[in-house]
Structures are given as structure tokens and as C-alpha cells.
Amino acid sequence: MTAGQPLTLLREVFGYPAFRGDQAEIIAHVGGGGDALVLMPTGGGKSLCYQIPALLRPGCAIVVSPLIALMQDQVDALTQLGVKAACLNSTLDWRDAQAVEQAMFSNGLDLVYIAPERLLLDRTLALLDALHEAGKLALFAIDEAHCVSQWGHDFRPEYLQLSTLHERYPQVPRIALTATADQATRNEMLARLGLGEARVFISSFDRPNIRYTVVEKDNARKQLLTFLAGRRGQAGIVYCLSRKKVEETAAWLNTQGYPALPYHAGLPAEERAANQRRFLREEGLIMCATIAFGMGIDKPDVRFVVHLDLPKSIEAYYQETGRAGRDGEPADAWMAYGMQDVALQHARIAESGADEQQKILEAQRLTALLAYCEAPRCRRQVLLDYFGEQHAPCGNCDLCAEPPELWDGTQAAQKALSAIFRTGMRFGVTHLTAILCGKTSDKIRQWQHDRLPTFGVGQELDEHAWKSVFRQLAAAGLVHVDMTEHGALQLTEAAREVLKGQRRVELRRPAKRKSTTTRSTTLRGAAASDLTPADAALFQLLREWRAATAREQGVPAYVILHDKTLRELAEVRPVSHGLLASITGMGSAKIEHYGEELLRLIREAG
After folding, report:
1. What is the pLDDT of residue 524?
2. CA 20 to 30 Å from 380, out of 79, 231, 307, 323?
3. Cα–Cα distance for residue pair 282/315, rounded to 1 Å
4. What's the pTM value of the predicted model, to 2 decimals?
């Protein structure tokens, strides 16, 4: 492998002018036979880190992926680039599978995508043994490597057996890749995959094109409609905690004029696969989903990710929001959350089969997410700080746009904590807020809570403000939400210092939010938002051509060309094959397949 080979492949095959970040170093390391663990954000170009070494090294590369439903799309995308790729999974009949196996031996394939279950079959391992003996195993790429973490949000038990690859083929380089992992998960990946000697590459976790917004959950559907205003025609994902809520939200969005599909593990496999296929191949659809949907979704033009319920952890939140804006164009991560969400997540941890140490770790991860939600400073700073990365205020989140007012909330915190203590730590936010505001009800009279010293002592704040105080106390670790007691708030050991006046509590007063549509984009999506009228018309014409071409070939539109490439074509308007090669994403195979047609459309547009 010469120094210039990777760059030549990048330009001629993939159509990109230069490597980004650590890509060149990773490719040189793996291409030279070294093992690597790569942590790189979604949209950061992870796949190139194994695809280019696969083309540089003799033989066939094996890509282990848990995503059978997406393998064919990944293969289609590579085939469009002129790369010889195939998948080997349960969707193939025995004849097709046999043809793939034979092509692996006859140098007819550069990459083969395979599910971990299939890889670990005796038949497959025997096939790999034979390939290895013939010197035709280029490398192993283990995609979505965080699936090896037993207590992670995407655990796949088959991943635990992938250390077999190192034991069986010690001379074949391995590259494990993931978009997110905290230190505990990194250590787990290195240990369980036998990557003790591997080089670890950690890229910046920052996704600067994503705008982060968190709102207090009030009327979630009304808030969602406000957010979606101006985003009609854009692709997005709406995450919900329960399957029932997924289906209800999808049905409701359709009645509001937003085409939406449901996706959760309880749907029949055929319906689930059909909905996923539609989301990937059609434009402007919203997928309402549980966390069963999303890992490895390679749709570059997802313009927003919404959380109508609190995710499990800050890693899960980062991973799920990372599915927006993979094309580098502006995108939104919008979340509505409330104390009930906190209670449900605490209940999930308490009722899990995890050991006590793991439950403590899960609770710490949830607390980190609450701290993010209630942060008084730039959300990107808080998010990246969790992954050990420093960042200046980003100017592209709700708190940078409208910094909250901070106030000394020590006395308010003492009143709130006292109300929890004097009611026996058996009641939730609504009841405690009513006590502090001096509002009577049958329940308050029944428990004689209108006779407590804390009854009515908090009338300087309204109910909305008190609920914010309780959320911030939970985020600060002063209060624990116990679902075994129906969401009752309980004091933690740390609350003692506050009650004794030994600790000051600073709280944020939520700013009055302006409409969440301030940065909404045009009907045709972010990629066209700042084009001239003439260029926007050509961009739309190119999109229509792409949609027709994709339908004809039975592949997702982005497999043909990304929005980013169409935008550049509309702006630059190249007039020759040579100039087409200067457009991002226009490799030699794409120019050969589509060059004449694109040049004709550009000429006709004038």
C-alpha cells in the first residue's frame, strides 16, 4: 500500500476531495494490518474507515452488522460506486447464498455484510477458515460495536462471541466501530472483543449542524405541532417510550397532515420491515418509534429527531439524536420531558434484572441526562463534557439562543425538601406543589396536609415554577423519584446539607420561549433553504430525477446521490464530465452512470 492509494480511492471511487479527522490515520493503520477501535459520531464517515482498507488489502472483507434489514441498502450504495459487495443473511435462498460464497473465493467480492448469528454458524466459520488458508480474508469490521455491552441500550448477545475472530484468525486485522460510548462501555468493548492491543481512535463527538432544544412537557401534542410547523415535507423520527404511544402518535400525526408510520418490536416482522423500507425510500415521512428503530439507519436527510419521552441515558439520547442531519445540513433534536418521565425511567432501572452495581451505573447515567435537561448553560457543552470533551458555547441550542436567568433557589429548595419530608416521602410533584401553593383538595384534607407548617409557604412561586424547582432538585441528585410509591419524591442523603443551610442551591428560571419554528426550513428541506430561486428550481428538478431513478432501480433515493451533492450541482452547474468530478459525492462510477443525464438536466435548466 503506497501513501497515495487511499486518497486516490477516496476521490475516484467515493467522490470526496479529502479525508476528515482521523480517517486517513485509521485507514493507514488498519490497511497495514493493525487492529482498531473507532469512536466517531454518526455522519462522521465511519464506514470509509473499513471500506477503503477492504479495497486496499487482498481478499474479501467481512463486515459484521446486526442490521439485516439495512444490509441490502448498504450493498446497493456500494454497488452504485462500483465496489463489489454482497450480503450473506437469512433473506437469501440457498442458491443466492451459495453464489455469494463462491464469489468470495473467486475474488469477485470486496466486502460481504453478515449478521453475527450467521457468522457464528459452524458452516460460516468453516467457510472463513478456507478463505483464511487461501489468503483471502482481508479484514473484519465489527459495526455497532457497542452492542457488546451487556447493559447498553442496544445489547446483542451474539456480539459476546465475536472474540472468536481474534482467537481463530489472529493475523487478520479487526476494526470495531461505534458512534458513541462512555468510558465504561469503551472498556467493555476492548475486553469482550479481545481488542486489548488495538489502537483507540476517538473523534470529536460534536455534531455542529444539530440544534438541541429541550422543553418542559405541558401539552406534548400541541407542543409537537408547534415544532413541526414549517417542517412539512421533511423526514423525521419521533421517539416514544411505549408501543401504544407510538401507534397513537403515528395515527394522530396522519390526521394532522403529517404522513407518519409506526415502528416497534411488537409489530409483525413484515409490517416492521415494510415501514422501515418506506421510511428509507420515500421522502417526507415521519417514523414514530420506540428505541427498536434507528441503529445504523443510513438515511442522510433526516431533518429532525423528536423525543416525546425521556430516553434511557445520555448515551441513548446522543445516539438517537445523531440520526438527524447525517448529510451535514441543519437539523433539529427536540425533546419534551417532565417528572413522570423521570419516574418511569427510575422504575425501569429498579425492575430490571441487573445487579446492584449495574443499577447504580444506570441511575448515574439517568442523572447525567437530567442534568443535561435542566442545564443552565449551553447544551452542547454539557453533552460533550459527558464524553470528556471541552467545547465553547455553541450558539446553536435553545439555551445559547435564550440564556435562562439564574437565581438563588436555596430557600425555595429548603421549602420543597421540607414538604417532601413532612409528608413522609410518599407523594408526587402535583400533590407537593399544591401544598406549597396553599391549594386544598379532598386528598390534602384527607391527609390533613393543610395543617402542615409547609402548607402555603411557597405562594411566591406559581405551580409551573414549583414543578421546575422539583425537576431541578431531581437533576441535582437531591431528590429521588420512586415508582414503587407511584412517583413519590424522596430525599437523598445530599438533601441534608441543603436543609441545614450548609449548601447553596442555584436554580434556573426558564426563559419565555419563542416559537420553536424560528429556524424552520422550507418545504423542500434544509438543503434548498439558501439557494437562489433559479438554483432552487434546478435543485428540485434534480430531486425529481433522483426519485424517478431510485424507483426504477428499487433503491433509496440517497443511494443514487445525496441532497448535498444535488445542492452543489445546482449551485456550481458543471458543464463537462471533468467538472462533474469536482462535485462532492461524484465518483467515477456515478459519473459513468449518471453524468450524461445530469449534464443534460443542467443544460436544459439554463
Report:
1. 37
2. 231
3. 29
4. 0.75
